[in-house]
Amino acid sequence: FVHFGEMKFPEKNKTIYSCNEGNFSLWDEPIQKATEMFKSASPKPYSARYVGSMVSDVHRTILYGGVFYYPADKKATKGKLRVLYEGFPMALITEQAGGIANTGLFNGKIGRIMDVIPDNIHDRCPIIMGCKRDVDKVLSFYGTS
């Protein structure tokens, strides 16, 4: 059993981004631009780390900093992760650790995952969560932060 004590984002976050880049061509332009910015950041590009398990990816993001995102795309316009049992629990943990959990542009607005009101038990939403620095960078491509 490993215990980290109180889970908080570090004061100095590492430069890590975590997403499934196999869907890059299907994402909206702001998410594509954010991804390109992470890959070409100066003086050193962000490191790409994607396990494919949201819990593992978000756990690493909280421990070391950075951002995890699974945005909506042209095939899954509402995103792929389920609000009630993926989005809400991980958003709550992320926010309690001092991070931000946002949907990006979803249903015509940008907002917190915790503010999404699902209509059905299996409703989905896009996910952008991590340290404030990096989530704000992603959201800035939508013209807000």
Can you put this structure into words, describing what you see?
The chain is of the alpha/beta class. Helices cover 32% and strands 19% of the residues. The chain is built from four helices and eight strands; from the N terminus they run E-H-E-H-E-E-H-E-E-E-E-H. The protein has helices spanning 29-40, 54-64, 83-96, 132-140, and strands at residues 16-18, 47-48, 67-70, 81-82, 100-106, 109-112, 124-125, 127-130. The strands form two sheets. The chain has a six-stranded mixed beta sheet, with helices on both faces. Strands 4-7 form a two-stranded antiparallel sheet. It starts with 15 loop residues before the first strand and ends in a 5-residue tail after the last helix. The mean pLDDT is 94.
Mean pLDDT across all residues, rounded?
94
* Percentage of residues assigned to helices: 25-40%
Give the helices and strands as they follow along the chain: EHEHEEHEEEEH
**Based on CA inertia axes, which overall geometry fits?**
globular
* Cα distance spanning the termini: 38 Å
Output the radius of gyration.
14 Å
Can you count the helices?
A: 4
Strand order of the largest sheet: 2-1-3-8-5-6
Count the E strands: 8
Strand content: 15-25%
Characterize the biggest β-sheet: 6 strands, mixed
- State the low-pLDDT regions, or none: none
Class from secondary-structure proportions = alpha/beta
